[in-house]
Amino acid sequence: MTLIKSISGIRGTIGGRTGDTLNPLDIVKFTTAYATFIKRKTGRSGKIVVGRDGRISGEMVKNVVCGTLMGMGFDVVNIGYATTPTTELAVRMAEADGGIIITASHNPRQWNALKLLNSEGEFLTAADGAEVLDIAAREDFDYAEVDHLGQYTEDDTFNQRHIDSVLQLKLADIEAIKKRKFRVCVDTINSVGGIILPDLFKAIGVEYEILNADCTGDFAHNPEPLEKNLQDIMNRMKQGGFDLGIVVDPDVDRLAFICEDGTMFGEEYTLVSVADYVLEKCSMLHVQCSMNTVSNLSSTRALRDVTEKHGGKYTAAAVGEVNVTTKMKEVGAVIGGEGNGGVIYPESHYGRDALVGIVLFLSSLAQKGCTVSALRQTFPDYQIAKNRIDLTPETDVDAILVKVKEMFAKDNSAVVNDIDGVKIDFPDRWVHLRKSNTEPIIRVYSEAQTMAQADELGKKLMQVVYDMQ
Questions:
Q1: How far apart are CA 298 and CA 386, in angstroms?
Q2: Strand 111-117 vs strand 98-102: parallel, antiparallel, or unpaired?
Q3: Residue 448 phi, psi dihedral angles, 5° rounding
Q4: What pLDDT sits at residue 23?
């Protein structure tokens, strides 16, 4: 069974039997449930924005989604190939009642998903998501009569409007970027990054070479932007001639950098580096803003260190973008995000946005006048090992996590946090176990001073889990 329902949306593999996968009948059911939820929330059948990444199944899913929304009486604004942050911004720009992003983010090509947005262009809260799932389970639907069907329009202007909004950010130093005359190599995985990023680079005066630029959805490699999947661009960088390597995932909300020598900057350090720049500028310019930051429990301690260096306060949130943005609003964070390369900058919007990350990172690099590898050396050096435990239908994940918590609760050297799975914090390292929102696995993330130490800690906890099964 590969149909997963969570706060991250409705996600599954294409094809197969209804109820088990993301197929046309289930797409209709969950789209209808979402439209019903929006109608109850607003008291009307208004306007919904629909955007999609380059996945092979995207055209089919888009047609089913748009037709279903029209059948519910909603007007549909199809913005076509669009990044996740573009679609989020389009909801606000179009003054729509919500939006659906058709993307399975970093999942392989056979997956797709419906990511559901509110009228602010933000992901539904856990409570709202639960209400949508309840409506779907009860099939409590009421479709529009023939005279009240929705209208369909297409609008391809939002990519440029997204770029324009990024260029207008206060800390986007476009003049400094242009003066540096950067040359970058970019891997866009054969999805929508190959459409929007060239226009961004032209606007900021950056020379570029795009790998896997065709928006075919036939991903050139595993689309998760981890080092093991990025050997082609790393080898290209080692040949020389580039200041920076840039990697995005299929829907362009995750961002990883590669140093000029072909080594990884570190996906975890995307947010750290951008946050350091934002906090530094706020402090230097005496800007009246919060100096608080937020990331999720599975993210590096380096953000905490950088935040405290600038006199700010760091707060950890449960994993999941909506959990991070909720916590950011609570503490008034100036910037936040996730260690998977997701930068959330509220001046733009409350969503992970690779375009925002790219421009702020290049602004920092241009002002400092250093290389990417030199910039990396200015940050605390931690290493995160990312492992996974594949689940079977018989696995009782909750019972396993309770046992792990109990095992370390009496350890005076450890602090146990159970707001999202179980995180065990030691003075010089940590390990976090949690059930994935997007795949049938337990994610096991661990951090220490060296990769060997981090991996050893992660493997130790994985063995504890295996022994319990």
A1: 10
A2: antiparallel
A3: -155, -175
A4: 94
pLDDT band for position 440 (50/70/90)? confident
CA 449 to chain centre: 26
- Determine phi and psi for 44, rounding to 5 degrees: -155, 165
In the set 45, 105, 191, 299, the catalytic residue is 105
Torsion angle in degrees (nearest 10) through CA of 369, 370, 372, 376: -120
HSE-up of residue 4 (Cα within 13 Å, Cβ side): 22
- Which residue in 229, 440, 274 sits closest to 365, CA to CA? 274
The DSSP-derived string for 391-434 is --TT--HHHHHHHHHHHHHT-TT-EEE-SSSEEEEETTEEEEEE
Q: Assess whether pLDDT exceeds 60 at residue 111.
A: yes
Task: Compute φ and ψ for 172, nearest 5 degrees.
Answer: -80, 105
Average pLDDT (31-57) is 96
Is the CB of residue 297 less than 8 Å from the CB of residue 340?
no
Gap between the Cα atoms of 366 and 341, Å rounded: 20
- Cα separation of 96 and 89, whole Å? 10
Residues β-bridged to residue 115: 101
Mean pLDDT over residues 319-347, rounded?
95
* CA count, 13 A, side-chain hemisphere, 456: 7
Compute CA 172 distance to the chain's CA centroid, rounded to the nearest angstrom.
21
Token pair, residue 31, equals: 């789209």
Q: What b/e readout covers 220-231, taking b as 16+ CB neighbours within 10 angstroms?
A: bbebbbbeebbe
The pLDDT of residue 287? 57
Residue 210 pLDDT > 80, yes or no?
A: yes
Average pLDDT over residues 224-251: 96
DSSP single-letter state for residue 219: -
Q: How confident is the model at residue 411 (pLDDT cuts 50, 70, 90)?
A: confident
User: Sign of dihedral through CA atoms 252, 79, 35, 330?
Assistant: positive
- Tell me what pLDDT residue 7 has: 63
Cα 320 to the center of its chain, rounded Å: 9
Res 352 pLDDT > 60: yes
Q: Catalytic: 191?
A: no
Helices in 239-353 by DSSP H: which ranges? 269-284, 302-309, 321-331
